[in-house]
Amino acid sequence: MHKRKQLSKLSTLLLVIFLLIPNLALAETPNTTAAPITESTKISQGVQYESTNTIVNNEAQAFKQLIVDLNDPFTTIDVSIPTPLSKLATTTSQANAYTALGQQVAGAINGSFFWGSDQGYLPMYLIAYRDRLMNAGIIASGRDQYVNQPIAFGIDSTNKGKIDSYNLSLSFNHNGQDYPITSTDKHRSNDNLILYTPLYPKPTTETNALGIELVIEGVTGGTALNFGETVTGKVTKIRERNNPTASTIPKDGFVLSAHGEAMQLIKDIGIGETISITADIDDKWKGASFMLTSGPELVKDGKVNLGIDPNSDRATERAPRTAIAIDKTGTKVFMVTVDGRQSGYSRGQNMREFAEYLVSIGAHQALNLDGGGSTTMAVRKPGDFNVSLFNKPSDGRERSVSTALFAVSKAPVGTPTTVGAHLSKPGVYLKGTKGSVLVDYVMDNYYNPVTFNKADVKLSSPQGLISTNGLEFTAQKAGAGSITAQYNNATANIPFEVVESIHTVQPSSPSFEVRKNGSTTLTVKAFDAKNREVIFDPALVKWSAADSIGTITANGTFTAGSKEGTGSVTATLGGKTISIPVTITGDYSRVDKMESLNNWTASATNGKATLSMNSDKEPAFEGNGSLKLTYDFTGTTGTSAAYIDAKTPVSLTGTPVKITARVYGDAGNTWLRGRIQDGQGKEYVVDFTPENGLKWLGWNYVTATIPAGVTGNLSLKQIYIAQPTDSLKTKGSIRIDDLKAVFANSYKEALFKDTGLTFRAEGEITSLVNQGVIAGFADGNFGPYEELTRQQAAILLARALKLPTDNVTDPGFEDMAPTMTFYKEVAAVANAGIINGKEKGTKFDPNGKLTRAEMAAILQRGFKLPLSDKNHFTDSNGSFAKDAINSLAFNNITQGIGGGKYGPAQNISRADFSVFLHRTMAIK
């Protein structure tokens, strides 16, 4: 019995999905055993960059790391110090500002945490530089906090990486007695004693009147707090409690600011008395070039060792992360990031997963740095003087941060040894074809970029394959070999091959469309006998077109005639002739077939958005491709939007009256819109749906009207979905295909491939699709003559009547288990008394075909149609649904099948049910 129920459940589910709604793409679960894809580049003598895309615990992850070899005499690591302390800047800008002759930043990551705007963006934790305390910071209490232990990363006196605990001593001395200072240059809080120094970014302490402050001036030895040294000054002013004026920080001194219990430490000190300040650190940190505190600790002694409660929200959240790690010797440093919050690219990791990854790459000690939107990996590309952003921040842009860590090359200027160069057009060349080499960079033996004159780069071929003219060449001899690009003694060898003849020719597009009197330029591709693309001189192509459709120039520019029609253009190259079909359109221009992501990208406001191509399980409406926009608006406030952005605005080939597209909806009740601009750059928003109008599931044909008065050559900048209502925020995906510019208001297209504008039920089906009641198939067909099942009818009625499907009562059907897809819809219509069961109510028969009699009964019950005393059909007597059938006739919903008959026993098709349902909904 259990086995039969399971088989019934499976067959029902598959049949319903096939007949009623488009095929839904199954969520693709990443393969946990997939081999990682790793790219590696040496970017300085002692720094290696690696990028790894892999799957961890069924989640895509993108790691970036710099491996820094401190054994190299020209390699070290340094930290940026925000000046003033409140300054924020991107990691790349900090690195490029640091770069100078003899200190080239090869790569960089963001540093430690910083306060928000309410605390003036000050660093949160200790920073020391060249044995000087720059910021004392805090150590948080509570194992759920990121930094709850005093642990720092730094480069010690032997130029080795160190991750270790420390003991900071910060105190003042008065009359021979030492007293502890809470911290430096931070906003004072309860019971704090804060030392304000000239490093503080504001001229005053900005404190309230609830404390006492001593102004200390004339400090001997300067105001730098060097470890192990003491500086001394005299109290020149006292700000008493309840004085609202904050103390000014002297250029040659400090302010000691106390609150609460800490006031007891300074309340008896008077003007003119001497105060000494001392900062010190453990001997193991003495001589370090810098120290940067962060946390939590991730790895200790080569094993995962989380310095945070592993069950806390901060530890379990999957997020972008940044870490610094060292090997057992301290001579190898790992600067590591993992991107996150980007489904399909990189989900991000929790603390334990990140720690496990760090152990796997050789970390002996590791410390977490600031993550989330701050996570940044910057790398100097070969030949560049400055670093560039290499990861994909979760904000969609690089965030400004307080500190950054730099992998630094101090190598001197060396001898040019490496040339980076490539063919301007890669491929196999046809003999006689001209080409050129692009020189990307020249580097010396220390990987420093070399400034060079491209005219000094010489080309040659050891096999004599080319003749040269500067960086241009002509393929002169058939054969395989290379092209050498040489600058002084530095060279690059570029694989190169020349063929004698062409084997096949193909059009760049299998067919094309152009409007009446419009123009477009055609191209072809050539291939050799090994099916490799061949580069050739376009002037070798001979073009021709029939006079009846238009004309074509020697360079392949086709101009259509003034009549609509079809024909072909021929192209001849290397003795090979091909014919390319052409369609001359009058009312529309196909703007983009959406076959590629080349000109499209995604962005979001108050949400997340990613853009991809459709999968093999998601058929395009036209051609092979469609753009898939995946969005997540959940948990946000304010208007959310997910954008498909054109990298270059897409020409609408003039001034159309509307834009149309095929859109696969997700019934997310979002607002589908577009953004266009005219020739002067003025932008306009157009609507493909009303607000909350994207109600359908599956393919639909949508239209956006161009606003009146907009003229000139228009272009499309964006297509996007928006949701201004917080209670309707959801997540999902839509797909866009077959984008057209339409130039006649009368132009229309059929909703589905197998119906048509003149199809008898086109209007009714379109209305039901737009209301989200019915849908077509994933391939763009509707299946109008497919017979409807009882379960499909239940689903359609539940949607049309907007029946609640939560907390439904089990109707007790033996063949409808609560775990089955669409069980709730069946239960909802059964609970409402619309569709009854069979066999004394014990079974629903979900896969049974719905008869015309059953259709009449459920429509009459569901919409409570008035009954009729008149018998309208000769064949309805004896039918259980006689009254319902007469009700449909009485309410002008049906006229029967002809000859005075209704056909109660006949099965109902999808098209006919759509008509009857639409008419019924219209009168109610």
Task: Report what the structure shows.
The chain has 924 residues and is mostly beta strands. It contains ten helices and 58 strands. α6 packs across α7. The strands form eleven sheets. The chain has an eight-stranded antiparallel sheet, with helices on one face. The protein has an eight-stranded mixed sheet with strand order 12-11-19-17-15-18-14-13, with no helix packed on it. The N terminus is likely disordered.
Task: Please give a handful of descriptors for the protein shown.
924 residues, mainly beta, eight-stranded antiparallel beta sheet, eight-stranded mixed beta sheet, 10 helices, 58 strands, globular, disordered N terminus
Sheet-strand content, in percent, reads: 35-45%
Determine the mean pLDDT.
Answer: 93
- Rounded to the nearest angstrom, the distance between the terminal CA atoms is 43 Å
Gross geometry:
globular
**What multimeric state do the chains show?**
single chain
Largest sheet: 8 strands, antiparallel
Poorly predicted sequence stretches spanning 5 or more consecutive residues: 1-34
Radius of gyration: 37 Å
Identify the strand order in the major beta sheet. 1-2-3-24-23-25-21-22
Helix content: 10-25%
The total count of helices amounts to 10
User: How many strand segments?
Assistant: 58
The SS-based structural class is mainly beta
Topology:
Layout: H1 2-19, E1 37-44, E2 47-56, E3 59-69, E4 75-79, E5 89-90, H2 91-98, E6 104-110, E7 127-129, E8 132-135, E9 151-155, E10 161-165, E11 169-174, E12 177-180, E13 183-184, E14 193-196, E15 211-220, E16 225-226, E17 229-239, E18 254-259, E19 274-280, E20 290-293, E21 297-300, E22 303-304, H3 313-316, E23 321-326, E24 332-338, H4 351-360, E25 365-368, E26 377-380, E27 387-389, E28 400-401, E29 404-409, E30 416-423, E31 428-430, E32 434-444, E33 458-460, E34 466-469, E35 472-475, E36 479-487, E37 490-499, E38 504-507, E39 512-515, E40 519-521, E41 524-527, E42 533-535, E43 542-545, E44 550-552, E45 557-560, E46 565-573, E47 576-585, E48 588-592, E49 600-605, E50 608-613, E51 627-632, E52 640-651, E53 658-666, E54 671-677, E55 683-687, E56 697-705, E57 715-723, E58 731-742, H5 762-770, H6 790-800, H7 823-831, H8 852-863, H9 882-890, H10 910-923
Parallel strand pairs: 13-14, 31-37, 31-42, 39-47
Antiparallel strand pairs: 1-2, 2-3, 3-24, 4-29, 5-28, 6-26, 6-29, 7-8, 7-20, 8-16, 9-10, 9-20, 11-12, 11-19, 14-18, 15-17, 15-18, 17-19, 21-22, 21-25, 23-24, 23-25, 26-27, 30-32, 32-35, 33-36, 34-35, 36-37, 38-41, 40-45, 41-42, 43-46, 44-45, 46-47, 48-58, 49-52, 50-51, 51-58, 52-57, 53-56, ...
